[in-house]
């Protein structure tokens, strides 16, 4: 019976559209899954979307949709992109599906019935962005993990007795050092757990977008307990059919980004221990994909979409680049220049060139049939290639199984380099010329057969090894080698010398056409057009707080108002779509886009805030715009305590002519919603945005 192998990606939040950061994890898992299938393992690869919680509820409200409509749309986008990229997931779980909800409720009951859940009251800070209870100083204090403002929560909740699992967890990390990989992450987790665990609030009652707690539907299950359970609910845990669960659980690998290590390595094993279920075999955290120096994310507005790269260079180029360029486990930068450079050097000039020159010569000199090497014509150079290839097969497997993709590919490409050198040194074209002429030289022909066989065999080996990484192009090279369907090949049997002589080649075509400079420009343009054409979150009515409005204090974090921002991750426009033409005539009461563009709205961070003496309604603020710190005077003193504003990110009209208020120069205006007869509410963001970002 074949060995089973179960691998999972995190399930992606549907508050953002997919970008290459998400694709990175999914590609890594797809590659691992493909290799295991190729080795003959009974493989199960799970991915999906995380659709509950306050963050999603707010994002859908901001988009003017019901949470279900909103999550249906974005979840479908993830799935469509994975399909378009040919990712071979076996199952796609949505946390809003019935099978998942039933499974989560079954898990809750199990943990509860085992005595690990009790009711209590939580008062403290909550980070909606991370969906995490935090030890932050007080109202509005920044989240220690992501720096975004936290919100005060006061709720009756169900608690999970996390503290009871501290010793068991420490034992787990110590006795099973590979449970968390890489080691740096393991050490972080270990010291976090050694620092002491507190019980965890696992239900919420102030919003409803979640799975009802069994027997107490006023509460919904905490979104991380809900989400983590996907790894077992997708296998049928809690349903009538537990066959997949019995077959594949525990997972061999949970692949995650480094920011969600604590949830996976502390909470998840504790939940499973509490339910009496087996633990996953390992959890691997990779680093972040950076773009322009910071983590690629929707909130930073620095995302790159996978579609753009797939359209211009193909899915395999993206897969190869990500796995070759980024040292797995560490952060890595993405740039279009580096992508095209890598594509040209390793794929067009490297593997592609080796394939086309070898196969073209076999066509020319051996009528398209793999020649037979002859022992009489052997030289040490041929044996050296055979040895290198054998070592490459072994080293590649070791490195790949440690998820050192970059080094594994480097090893395989060292073989490509060695064969290139071998071809140059053995000059098959000269041997070919001698073996053809009026007086064919038999020795040259025999030597030519050996040189071309050796080259073709090395090409076959690199192609087989690289197949999980670049499934499409390697399948083409395999067919060109005359070997049929690469999917039928068992990688476990890969050895030097298996290429059968006399195999008839398929039609030879370039697999990686060289990319010229315009490729970079094209991709950049497509991304620019996409972000320009994005519709973003529909605007809510936004007004500027005029001096003098205001009432009783409101905490800014309780008053999050989404505003219209350009969001590069929103609805992709067709790359070729022409820019919208301005309407010829502007209807009465409307303004042209150019008029709106005159208003320079910027994200600013409050550095200091104090009351203006003798003016009950005014606050003097100093705000950081990224390029300068400005003084503003705002009529929000009756709505906000000055101290509560420090560190908050607000929106200001940056190009308003300066004016003096109570003798103080106000250099700009702060943007608030100003409800009729109510207090002004500062416009702020659901997610973190860099200081100085323009709203457009
Ligand atoms: N929904 C949770 C996960 C729950 S799993 C039970 C979540 N979702 S997420 O959409 O915010 O991020 C999920 C994963 O996407 C990250 O852990 C990481 O694997 C991947 N990435 C998102 N942005 C990324 C980069 N910029 N770089 C690399 N990976 C990134 O957290």
Describe the structure.
The protein is α/β, with parallel strands linked by helices and 696 residues long. A hairpin with a 4-residue loop joins β20 and β21. The protein is globular and about 110 Å long. The chain starts with a strand and ends with a strand. The model is unreliable at 535-584 (pLDDT under 50). The structure holds 5'-O-[(L-methionyl)-sulphamoyl]adenosine. 5'-O-[(L-methionyl)-sulphamoyl]adenosine (MSP) binds next to β2, α1, α7 and β13.
Name the beta content range: 15-25%
Count of strand segments: 27
How far the N terminus sits from the C terminus, by CA atoms, comes to 60 Å
Number of helices: 21
State Rg: 30 Å
Identify low-pLDDT runs.
Answer: 535-584
Largest sheet: 8 strands, antiparallel
Unique ligands = 5'-O-[(L-methionyl)-sulphamoyl]adenosine
How would you describe the shape? globular
SS class: alpha/beta
The average pLDDT value, as a whole number, equals: 88
The portion of residues assigned to helices is 25-40%
């Amino acid at each position: 019976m074949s060995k089973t192998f179960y691998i999972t990606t995190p399930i992606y939040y549907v508050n953002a559209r997919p970008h290459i950061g998400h694709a990175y994890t999914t590609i890594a898992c797809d590659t691992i899954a493909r290799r295991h299938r190729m080795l003959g393992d009974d493989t199960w690869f799970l991915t999906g979307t995380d659709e509950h919680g306050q963050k999603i509820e707010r994002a859908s409200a901001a988009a003017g949709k019901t949470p279900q409509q909103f999550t249906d749309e974005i979840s479908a986008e993830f799935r469509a992109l994975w399909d378009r990229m040919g990712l071979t997931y076996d199952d796609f779980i949505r946390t809003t599906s019935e099978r998942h909800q039933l499974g989560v409720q079954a898990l809750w009951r199990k943990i509860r019935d085992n005595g690990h859940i009790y009711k209590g009251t939580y008062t403290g800070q909550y980070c909606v962005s991370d969906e995490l209870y935090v030890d932050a100083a007080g109202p509005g204090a920044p989240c220690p993990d992501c720096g975004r403002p936290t919100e005060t929560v006061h709720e009756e909740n169900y608690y999970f007795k996390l503290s009871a699992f501290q010793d068991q967890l420490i034992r787990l990390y110590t006795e099973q050092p590979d449970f968390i990989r890489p080691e740096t992450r393991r050490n972080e987790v270990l010291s976090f757990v050694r620092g002491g665990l507190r019980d965890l609030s696992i239900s919420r009652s102030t919003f409803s977008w979640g799975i009802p707690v069994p027997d107490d539907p006023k509460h919904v299950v905490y979104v991380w307990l809900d989400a983590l359970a996907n790894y077992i609910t997708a296998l049928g845990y809690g349903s009538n059919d537990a066959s997949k669960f019995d077959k594949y659980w525990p997972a061999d690998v949970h692949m995650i980004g480094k920011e969600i290590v604590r949830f996976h390595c502390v909470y998840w094993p504790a939940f499973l221990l509490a339910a009496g279920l087996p633990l996953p075999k390992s959890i691997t955290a990779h680093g972040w994909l950076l773009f322009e120096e910071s983590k690629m994310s929707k909130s930073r507005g620095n995302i790159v979409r996978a579609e753009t790269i797939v359209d211009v260079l193909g899915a395999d180029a993206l897969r190869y680049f990500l796995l070759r360029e980024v040292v797995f486990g560490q952060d890595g930068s993405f740039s279009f220049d580096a992508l095209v450079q890598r594509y040209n050097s390793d794929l067009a000039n490297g593997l592609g060139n080796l394939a086309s020159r070898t196969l073209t010569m076999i066509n020319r000199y051996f009528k398209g049939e793999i020649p037979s090497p002859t022992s009489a014509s052997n030289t040490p150079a041929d044996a050296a290639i055979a040895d290198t290839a054998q070592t490459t097969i072994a080293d590649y497997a070791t490195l790949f199984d440690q998820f050192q993709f970059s080094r594994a590919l480097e090893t395989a490409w060292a073989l490509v380099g060695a064969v290139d050198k071998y071809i140059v040194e053995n000059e098959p074209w000269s041997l070919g010329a001698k073996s053809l002429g009026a007086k064919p030289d038999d020795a040259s022909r025999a030597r030519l057969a050996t040189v071309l066989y050796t080259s073709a065999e090395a090409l076959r080996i690199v192609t087989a090894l690289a197949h999980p990484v670049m499934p499409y192009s390697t399948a083409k090279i395999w067919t060109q080698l005359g070997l049929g369907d690469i999917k039928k090949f068992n990688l476990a049997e890969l050895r030097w010398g298996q290429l059968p002589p006399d195999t008839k080649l398929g039609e030879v075509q370039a697999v990686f056409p060289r990319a010229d400079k315009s490729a970079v420009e094209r991709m950049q343009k497509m991304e620019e057009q996409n972000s320009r054409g994005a519709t973003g979150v529909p605007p809510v009515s936004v007004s500027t707080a005029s001096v003098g409005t205001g009432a009783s204090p409101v905490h800014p974090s309780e008053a999050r108002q989404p505003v219209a921002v350009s969001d590069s991750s929103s609805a992709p426009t067709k790359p070729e779509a022409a820019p919208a033409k301005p309407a010829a005539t502007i209807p009465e009461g409307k303004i042209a886009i150019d008029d709106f563009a005159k208003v320079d709205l910027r994200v600013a961070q409050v550095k200091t805030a104090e009351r203006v003496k003798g003016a009950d309604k005014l606050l003097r603020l100093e705000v950081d715009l990224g390029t300068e710190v400005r003084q503003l005077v705002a009529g929000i003193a009756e709505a906000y305590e000055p101290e509560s504003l420090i560190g908050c990110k607000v929106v200001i009209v940056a190009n308003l002519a300066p004016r003096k208020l109570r003798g103080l120069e106000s250099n700009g205006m702060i943007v608030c919603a100003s409800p009729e007869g109510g207090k002004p509410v500062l416009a702020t963001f659901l997610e973190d945005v860099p200081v100085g970002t323009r709203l457009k």
